[in-house]
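ARCHIVE CARD
CATEGORY: sequence design from structure
SOURCE FIELD: tokenized fold
FIELD CONTENT:
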């Protein structure tokens, strides 16, 4: 399996989420959330290879993606339609294509209010060819509002928890979260947590 398989996988862990939002801290609330998603690579991934603990070759890619999310539900306390930016790192076994991905994301909702959702991503990934792959993982996010008087982002207490699934192409990633169940197979891996430098 060549390093080209990493080009699509690097940010792909965010592409499809089955999720719910936990609402403001004044009391418990859970609202279903669903959206479609697409993002493209903003530049070529930075890649490296190394020998693993199991004496097999591993490849790592660090990438940035930019795209958008379109919400298909309504009634939750914060919006999921807007611009999406992802910073991600993927490490895979070059021979088997199995690996893991981790990273951060920022969603800027298309609202008149200056707000955002920031969070982290962890996923198991599997290359399906040299330029494509799939994965499943977990996304956690925090909803924040910018206070102009203090110049600071402040958490409202709202959160996003998401079981994530995704697919990718050579140019980027796309998918959905919420709604009907997806087609990505269950994935699992035992990992050391180290990556190539």
């Amino acid at each position: 399996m060549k390093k080209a398989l990493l080009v699509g996988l690097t940010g792909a862990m965010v592409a499809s989420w089955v999720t719910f939002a936990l609402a403001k801290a004044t009391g418990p609330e859970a609202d279903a959330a669903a959206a479609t998603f697409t993002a493209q690579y903003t530049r070529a991934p930075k890649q490296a290879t190394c020998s693993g603990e199991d004496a097999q070759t591993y490849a790592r890619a660090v990438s940035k993606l930019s795209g958008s999310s379109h919400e298909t539900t309504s009634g939750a306390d914060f919006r999921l339609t807007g611009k999406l930016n992802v910073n991600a790192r993927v490490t895979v076994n070059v021979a088997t294509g199995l690996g893991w991905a981790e990273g951060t994301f920022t969603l800027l909702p298309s609202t008149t209010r200056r707000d955002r959702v920031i969070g982290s991503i962890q996923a198991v990934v599997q290359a399906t060819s040299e330029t494509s792959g799939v994965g499943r993982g977990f996304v956690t996010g925090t909803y924040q509002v910018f206070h102009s008087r203090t110049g600071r982002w402040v958490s409202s207490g709202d959160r996003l928890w998401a079981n994530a699934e995704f697919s990718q192409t050579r140019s980027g990633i796309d998918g959905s979260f919420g709604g009907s169940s997806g087609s990505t197979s269950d994935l699992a891996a035992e990992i050391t947590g180290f990556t190539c430098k």
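CARD ANNOTATION: Residues 5-177 form one domain. The chain has one domain: 5-177.
SHELF: design records, drawer C
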